[in-house]
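[audit] Reproducing an earlier prediction to check determinism. Same input, same settings, fresh worker. If the tokens differ from the archived copy the diff job will pick it up downstream; this log only records the rerun itself.
[audit] input (275 residues):
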Amino acid sequence: MSPDSPVVGPARASGRTGRLALGAVVTAIYVFLLAPVAIIVFSSFNPTEANTFPPTGFSLRWYAKFFESAGFVNAFRFSLWLAIVAAVVATAIGFLTAYGLVRAGRRGQGVVQSLAMLPMMVPHLLISISLLLALLVVPVPDLAALVIGHVVICLPFAIACIVASLEGIDAQLELAALTLGASRLRALWEVVIPLVAPGLLSALLFTFMVSFGDVYIALFLSGPGRTTLPIEIFAYMQWESTPVVAAITSMQILLIIALGLVIERLVGLRKIMRV
């Protein structure tokens, strides 16, 4: 059939119009999602104390104020430490749980996996209150309670990422290693873990972000001198409203972008998104 035939011409024009419309819709969605982030970043350079947009000039005074504030810096360091510990612990537990779920077969897997996903569906406020009431019965140091709370809310993300990665691996590879004389632990370390590395890295990334941005667990379980950055920001905004909050948020965005670049450098974000 000729490209200039009366049938092909309208069909091609209709397909081009559909692609343009889809592109416009996708662009509008991205603008809607990213516009608040862009406004926050631009507002952080405002030279005045008013949270105005667009900014009336360019200044780094609010970034300097963040680094000059001992409360903000200490809260940032503590949040960073807490997020790293929670991410590592949740990923380790999540790997063992996911391995047991996948390798144990289909019997009961759906029920156990649904139970493991409960902290993702239950509001963090209820989890925080439940942990607080549990600590009245079983006394635990404040720092340990805070780590446990963050691991609880991070664990479902770790399990979901690693289960998806494990299900894409042929179990016969591990069985072949066992047949050749490798122990179960050595087969895990030399066969399974390298193959699920993208899933482990994605679990670390997601659990780090969940822990770093948590408010409710830290609000109920943090002790004196152990204030996380979101709680410090929340307390600050009760009395003041300056672009220093926008500066802190911009640095958090930069941290997440840096983590994404590190993951891309190591294994590639496309591999992670496929799990």
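[audit] rerun output stored. Observation attached for the diff report: The two ends are 43 Å apart (CA to CA).
[audit] end
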